Amino acid sequence: MKRSLLALTLLAALPFAASAAEGVSYNFVQGGYVATNSNDDDIDADADGYGIDASVAVHDNFHIFGGYSNQELDFTDFDIEQYKLGVGYNHEIAPKADLVTRIAYQKLDAGGIADFDGYSAEVGVRGALASKLEGYAFAGYQDYEQVDGDFYGRVGALVKFNDNWGLNGDVKFADGDAEWFVGPRFTW
Question: Which end of the chain has fewer CB atoms surrounding its CB within 10 Å, N or C?
Fold first, then answer.
């Protein structure tokens, strides 16, 4: 009964919810270069490869997102695949800025050596800094089964060439490691 009442309340509030900030779109697909730089002095755990991400707005305030990356550890033929699928909520806090919360299911597959399911949750801000520049900053937590969870920070920027095309860069810092992405983004 409580769940039904909560769902009904949320549905009733949807028409009054704020839309996405001006100059920010949650409809995009991007692909590019992904690299991880590890701070582990005992082993060389640096890796690089490619990744693709997408997001689709399903309402003015809700979007679904997903991603895939494949990285090869340096000096090996060993691949690490990561998958992510989640849902996000965005709420306008200024004419050109949104408060964003996201939760996601994550999977890490290291070719038979490790195969972990997990989740992540993050909160942050995303906004149009100028007509051709967007930026974002998030704080989050990720946890995989059989692996200690980590808090992380993620920052990024999008330089827009026109209404549809841009170049996105993203850096995620967790426990001294850095994972970064750079590549073109198509927005609609």
Answer: N
The type of residue at 21 is A
Could you tell me if 42 and 86 are in contact, meaning their C-beta atoms sit under 8 angstroms apart?
Answer: no
Which pLDDT score is estimated for 18? 42
Half-sphere exposure of 24 (CA within 13 A, CB side): 27
**Rounded average pLDDT per 10-residue block, the chain, 188 residues:** 46 48 93 90 78 97 98 86 97 97 95 88 97 97 88 98 97 92 97
CA 71 to CA 82: how far, in whole Å? Answer: 9
pLDDT of residue 15: 42
CA 177 to centroid of chain Cα atoms: 17
* CA dihedral of 88, 61, 99, 181, whole degrees rounded to 10: 50
DSSP state at residue 22: T
- The radius of gyration of the chain's CA atoms, rounded to the nearest angstrom, is 18
Q: What torsion do the CA atoms of 138, 160, 67, 22 make, to the nearest 10 degrees?
A: 60
Burial of 174: CB neighbours in 10 Å, binned 0-12, 13-18, 19+: middle
